[in-house]
Write a structure and sequence with these properties.
This protein is α/β, with parallel strands linked by helices. Helices cover about 30% and strands about 30% of the residues.
Length: about 210
């Protein structure tokens, strides 16, 4: 049991350090030109009640994406990232970043609760990113790749701190919506900055064939 826990902890640490599991190994040294292109994040809200997008800091979302992107670049073997340098093997550019808030309905199913069969609207926030990729040695090989990350509100009947202090909801019959943390957009964006290297390294590896 102790060995299993230790193995799981080591695996988790490795995942955190490498950030992504499915990134392709780039087999030989290459240079990648990142085009510094001004992109304004687009806010899209289809939720009936906007809870998170009205207060989002779009510049912070953009900055967080580049933090994750540059950190992953530093630990990607055989890849040297440059800026606005046409003498590279590949060229990439951020073409789109969207900040999305949507909603869906969920129904409480607990016959012992007064909230049974109550329909609750839960919101989801999502960051979507699109980048363009070009093989500068083979100019006809141009493609677009994208990725997204999201986080949703949840229904819970777990006791919160006030309920525990006041001895309430011991039978877990009272439900509430668990909101999304305030910094969710920046966190999702930074994770996406790491994750976008999966399709990028796949494109680079594919060009070696």
């Amino acid at each position: 049991m102790r060995f299993t826990k230790l193995f799981a902890a080591l695996l988790f640490l490795q995942v955190v350090q490498s950030c992504i599991l499915f990134k392709k190994q780039v087999e030989k040294p290459v240079t990648v030109n990142l085009v510094d292109k001004a992109v304004t994040p687009e806010i899209i809200c289809t939720a009936s009640l906007a809870k998170y997008t009205p207060t989002v800091n779009v510049q912070q979302v953009l900055d967080s994406f580049w933090v994750g992107f540059n950190r992953e670049a530093q630990i990607t073997k055989n890849v040297t990232l440059k800026h606005n340098d046409g003498n590279c093997d590949y060229e990439i550019a951020l073409s789109k970043i969207q900040i999305v808030e949507s909603s869906r309905n969920d129904t409480i199913k607990n016959s012992a609760s007064a909230f049974n069969n109550k329909v609750v609207e839960l919101n989801t926030v999502e960051i979507k990113v699109e980048m363009t990729y070009k093989n500068l040695k083979k100019p006809n090989l141009t493609s677009t790749f994208s990725d997204s990350r999201n986080k949703s509100e949840k229904l819970t009947n777990n006791r919160n701190m006030d309920q525990m202090i006041n001895g309430q909801n011991k039978d877990h019959r009272v439900y509430r919506t668990k909101p999304i943390m305030d910094h969710v957009f920046s966190e999702l964006s930074e994770r996406l900055g790491h994750r976008i290297w999966v399709p990028l390294t796949r494109n680079i590896s594919r060009s070696f064939r």
